[in-house]
Amino acid sequence: MRLARMGVSSYSRAPPLQDPLPPSLPPPPPPPHLSPVSSKRSILSIAFPLPSVAEEPEQELEEQKETKEKEEKLKQEDEDEDEEEERNRSHCFLCYGWMFFGLFFASFFILTIYLVFVFKLQPALPIVSISKLDFPWLHFPDRNFTLLDANVLTQIQVFNDNEETVLDYGRIKVQLFLDHIQLGETMVAGFSQKAKNLTFLNMRTQVRNSLVNADYAKKLQASAKNNQIVLDIVLSGNIGFEIGLLKMNGMPSLIACQDIKQFEVDFADKPKECKVEIFGFSCAVLFGTQEYLEGGSQFPDLLHMRKMATLDIAMTVN
Predict the structure, then answer these.
(1) What is the mean pLDDT of residues 168-197?
(2) CA torsion 97→100→105→111, rounded to 10°?
(3) Domains in the chain, number
(4) Is residue 61 assigned to a domain?
(5) Residue 301: is its pLDDT beyond 60?
(6) Is 276 within the bounds of a domain?
(7) What is the CATH number of the domain that holds 268?
(8) Rg (CA), the chain
(9) Phi, psi (degrees; rounded to nearest 5) at 15
């Protein structure tokens, strides 16, 4: 009993055990290097967490995607513009090509008709020759042989060698050239010529106080005494054709009689024929004649005048 009591009393007298959990401690003070504002931010960052690092790559990917889409859109627009320009350029080339071929074929068609027309009419042209050439008056009034007075009588025969075609001539302008000297001009009235008809045209021209070179004048005087004078005669006008019921009027024509020698005209059995041409060739010769009259140059040959082809027919007499 005593022991029991002692035991009880001893048990009751044992010191009480300490509390294993210490009392709660106050929060540690902020680090000395952080200000109150930064500590407040840290507290806010804990209360409101910032976006995580994983969200930043997603935003960058979205921005890159948008940028790529914009670049692709701009590239597509540029490609569309290039295609539009290419289509417009091809259309322009096509239009120019058709215009070129159209003009080419139109010119070819007109040229073909012209050549056929010329070849058809060329055989119907008359045969022209000089049958008489005389100088009843050839005088140098100046002692220095620098002035020339001359009268020239010329007879031209025109033969219509066609079987049925009738030729209608308008007024004809006749010009005479002695090397680089013009020996006057005259006009011949128009006339009509039936098939196989021979017509003679008598004309007289004169020149007064024409300036000449003294040496050339002396040679000319000697040539006149021996009937060795050489002339160029040009006739320009219009020729019409009546072939059955078909009638064509006003074809520009030119007759070029070159290197006509007085001696040959007087004593030759057959007169020297002149060259008769129409359309473009005649215009070229007319242009050459006009240049001769304006510049006083030597009468150019027919081949040279063809190279000077022009559509100017100002000297053509209607």
Answers:
(1) 90
(2) -170
(3) 1
(4) no
(5) no
(6) yes
(7) 2.60.40
(8) 58
(9) -70, 150
